[in-house]
Predict the 3D structure of the following.
Amino acid sequence: MAKCDICSKGAHFGNNVSHSNRKTNRIWNSNVKNVKCKVNGAARKLHVCTSCLKSGRVERA
């Protein structure tokens, strides 16, 4: 899974815990999109999480 190029948010790891308290591995993927953004006046494709898009840290091209 990709990491956000702005805030470096990536996948998080943990456990599924059943009712009988058995643990199995689990992964939470962050919502990362491949977006065309303006970088120094030029358009580039970046991996950006939706929280960075929503907050306005990135200007879309």
